[in-house]
Design goal:
The complex is a heterodimer of chains A (185) and B (212). Chain A is mostly helical and 185 residues long. In chain A, 82% of the residues lie in helices and 0% in strands. In chain B, strand 1 and strand 2 form a beta hairpin. The model of chain B has no long low-confidence stretch (mean pLDDT 88). Chain B has 212 residues and is mainly alpha-helical. Chain B has a two-stranded antiparallel ribbon. Chain B has a single domain, classed as Arp2/3 complex 21 kDa subunit ARPC3, CATH 1.10.1760.20. Chain B is globular, with a radius of gyration of 17 Å. The chains are: A mainly alpha (185), B mainly alpha (212).
Chain lengths: 185, 212
């Protein structure tokens, strides 16, 4: 599809509203099948991500509904199908949209938001790398199960490094932006 | 405490988008002036921290999730407007990258956690100024979790009333207020304590570096 980022956003928003206006499980199932068909090759990867993203919440709510509705004598299979299909469809559409649209490109034209998003995304990568490095180092230092006190010390050191490292990285980026006149507008 | 996609009726999320759009426009005004090479790294760091905290979530039977927010830190250091914009961005990224929350629940999540949470934190800290910094910041952080939890529970709990079939079967979220209020609020009373401890620790870190 040759849609721009804004066009994709409009299509996604329209589809999301439409999905929430449909209350027939059969229609939602057909819509999900169509979305899977149109998503092309990454469809199973996207569906897999979707199912992992929703499984905990939907199982919690579905089990809760089964218990309470059965106890109250008004259980409806139709409701379970409806709500689970709708959630799968909406989350699948969200991941499909996100896989085609660069978030930073979608924020173009909103310079402050784009600036903040760029920095926050950079910080998230810094956070992820530090957490992984600390975990690997901690595991390598503790062949046996570590004590709670050791875990707490490791968590405290990790927390402080996270804040200081991300601040240092953020400062570097901000100074680079300053030198390019980002804050002069 | 993200409300997932698909559990809010259009009668809820469409008006919520209208309210949120006004709030986002209000919050974005003057934001640019506040940003410079000193504040931007701190804001980005706390935004990323809020993003990370929000992803460590536990599903709650009341239909939402339990997790720390980090919005109190943003609000106490940068004010309500900036915290609201930054937290809305966090929610958008979490929805698009991890499916946490979603496009239909974004405005309610943003208004509850980003705006009410931030405003609750700032107001509480002002009220408790005389109680000392640690108590004021801790209670403010606790309030920044509790207030959104109450709002989320209310919004979820009214869904069966707003959207149901003729025979009473719900079309979106299935549980009423009698279930959502205790199921969402009680765990967040405890989560708020964790948030308070974390916020006080980071607040002290920030003070030791003379950011506040």
């Amino acid at each position: 599809m040759g849609l721009s980022s804004r066009g994709r956003l409009a299509a996604y928003a329209t589809a999301a509203v439409a999905a929430s206006l449909v209350h027939e499980p059969a229609i939602l199932a057909v819509a999900l099948a169509c979305a899977l068909g149109l998503a092309g090759q990454p469809r199973w990867r996207l569906l897999n991500r979707t199912l992992w993203a929703i499984v905990a919440f939907n199982l919690t709510i579905s089990f809760g509904y089964v218990l309470i509705a059965t106890w109250q004598g008004n259980f409806r299979t139709n409701y379970l199908l409806l709500v689970n299909l709708r959630v799968v469809l909406l989350v699948f559409l969200g991941f499909w949209f996100a896989s085609h649209v660069n978030v930073l490109a979608a924020l173009r034209g909103r310079p402050t938001l784009e600036l903040l998003a760029t920095l926050a995304l950079g910080q998230m990568q810094v956070f992820a790398r530090i957490v992984r490095d600390f975990r690997l180092a901690f595991e390598s230092r503790n062949p046996a199960r570590p004590r709670l006190a050791d875990r707490a010390r490791n968590a405290a050191a990790q927390g402080q490094t996270l804040l200081e490292k991300s601040l240092a990285t953020g400062t570097e980026v901000a100074l680079a932006m300053r030198s390019r006149g980002t804050f002069d507008d | 405490m993200h409300i997932p996609d698909g559990f809010l009726s259009p009668q809820t999320f469409l008006p919520a988008y209208a309210v949120a759009a006004g709030a986002w426009a209000w919050a974005a005004r003057g934001l640019r002036r506040q940003l410079d090479e000193t504040t931007v790294p701190r804001l980005a760091m706390l935004t990323a921290l809020a993003y990370g905290l929000g992803l460590v979530m536990v599903p709650l039977p009341g239909g939402t999730s339990g997790h720390a927010l980090g919005v109190a830190l943003l609000a106490l250091m940068f004010g309500v407007r900036t915290a609201f914009v930054a937290y809305s961005l966090v929610l958008l990224l979490q929805a698009l990258l991890f499916g946490a929350g979603g496009i239909t629940s974004l405005p309610v999540n943003a208004l509850a956690m980003g705006l009410a949470g931030a405003a609750g934190a700032v107001a509480t800290k002002r009220l408790l100024t005389r109680a000392g910094d640690t108590i004021a910041v801790g209670v403010a952080a606790w309030m920044s979790v509790l207030l959104p939890a109450v709002l989320v529970a209310l919004v979820l709990g009214i869904q069966p009333l707003l959207a149901h079939r003729a025979d009473g079967t719900p079309l979106f979220f299935p549980f009423g207020l009698a279930i959502t209020l205790p199921a969402v609020i009680l765990p967040h009373l405890l989560i708020g304590i964790g948030e308070a401890v974390l916020t006080v620790l980071v607040w002290r870190f920030a003070k030791s570096r003379k950011w506040v």
